[in-house]
Amino acid sequence: MAWGAMFNGHAASGSWTGPRLQWHVNCLELLTVRLALHHFRALLEGRHLLVQSDNTATVAYINRQGSLRSSCMSKLTRHLLLWNQDHLRSLRAVHIPGKLNRAADELSRQPSRPGEWRLDPEMVQLIWELFRYAQELFVCYGGQQRLSHWIVDTIVLDYQTTGQCGNNLLDQIANITAEVLPLTDVKTILDVVFNTSEKALVSSSADPNKLVSDGNRVLKASEKLVSLLVKPTDTTANVSFTLDTVEVEVFMVGQNVTLDKIPRLDTTNSSVDIDLIGIAKNNSDGSAAVAFMSYNTMENLLKPDFFNTSNDTIKTMMSTVISATLPKTTNPKLTKPVNFTLKHIREFDPSGSLFCVYWNISEWIVDGCSVLETNSRFTVCSCVHLSTFALIMQTSPSESDSLMELLNLVCVIVGLVFFSLALLTFALCQWSPGVNNVARINLCVSLLLAHLLFLLTQQFLIRIRPQKVLCDVISGVLHFLFLSGFVWMSIEAVLLFICVKNLSQISSKKREVLSSGFLCVIGYTVALVVVSVSVGLFPEGYGSKHCWIKIDKGFIWSFLGPVCVILALNTILFINIIINLNSTLKNLNAEVSQMKQTKIMAFKTLAQFVVLGCPWILGFFTKDSKTLEILFLIMNSQQGTFIFLVYCVLNEEVRQQYRKCFRCLCCGRKQH
User: Fold this and answer.
1) CB 48 within 8 A of CB 139
2) Does pTM top 0.70 for this prediction?
């Protein structure tokens, strides 16, 4: 039995001897392809290759990059793919009928020629033993397997991925004996490791022991894989890459290093300062390496609840989980403490306590780590050893004040009812031509929607908070609605000031101060511009734990800044209104005095203190005062109530229309 192949007029052939004479014909056909590629290597280097074979199994195994039906053909396919990765740009196969494949077929029928070359079986076995992990390592993910080591193409299988597959993968990684792996292979395996762990998390999320076990295995596997990026160097070398689930920085120094200090190793949310030069000097070969990893999803496995402190506290993971190791370093003893800078990934609570912790088999502990510096954006931790670290904030549960919660709920609901009544009155009642209700109507609409959305958000916060996008959108909409409400308060203050200034002319001149369209443009455009600029400059500022604006980096001032300006303007206008109203009422003639009752006008003006939002100033002083907090809650939740009283109940024309409406309702009931 023999084999044969043709390439551009060049021929290659040989004979089958020994155990291969007992092989299945499909295995021999695939082995022929492998031998032909080796024979024509000089002609094929760097090309796209199309193999024509009259054996359908050979074509299928090459195109599908293997299968589980035949172990013999699977092994041969792996050899082909490994060789292809180093020598060809691509490898595909097509079926050719036997009658069209006569040249190669004739070669396979020839006896072997003297001196025909063949691979030395012992050398092949030695190479295969050296890289045996490539034979064994399959990475399972999403119904697929990936063969790593020069190969990142997927092999579609006929079965679904199970949790057992993920466990086998981590075991295979732990058993890798190679010293160095290519970067592409490490990235490929790491990516699938974390994706597989996320799938397994669904079934183990309720079992703390399973979470701890999986977390330890994933940490061990990732540290092992990253250590395979470390290779000898005389001076310095570094490797870095970023995946969706992890960021990696590896820095290596050799005995001829000229640096006094290595650069800080940075990831998106963390960085590390380590005296790697000093560590290298303590090693006999004068070399050392540090691997720094920042895990974006590890907190789902190594939860902050594993920080064993008093049970009556709330633990929050304030940073990404990070790991720092000294792979392939003979003497890993630190010469000085290592400093980690951890960016806060959640809203910082000034009343909470921050702890720099490290993972110790089954729990987070603080031994050997301390907080050097902290602010609202980041914390610097100092540790005397290397491990897996994180930043955990511990806060006392907020005291549940049922009375305040009930008062808040009742006040907001009452305010919403009166906002609705005011809007119905503005819409259904007939108003004199000189009355401009545009600002009041839009003020009611903005605050009604803002209070309603905020109330619903807080009632369903547990369900909304995990949906980050929804929470961010809600906080942005609330920002816009409350800001537009304040802008309309300012417009109302300006209109009232103009009205009071022109009160002496009211009997002779009735006019609309500004057009409705122009007021609407001002009322909503200002708020929209502020929110748009805020989103453009710092989109991460939305979505606090209450689905409101975060206080990070002073972003809260995108709301407080405009509010402070508007409140200051409204307060100044309110004072001027009182002064001008007092002066105007003294000079009014009898005709005007009969038209406007002085006491009612004064009450309306005083009520404007609430309508114009001036009580919001109390919000800056409620932190340490329960009384001011209650007063702030009542006054600002009842803006709708005061609008309804001032502009509806105390308006004689509106009251007459109310009486007429009630009479009609009463007469209708009597008739029935």
Assistant:
1) no
2) no
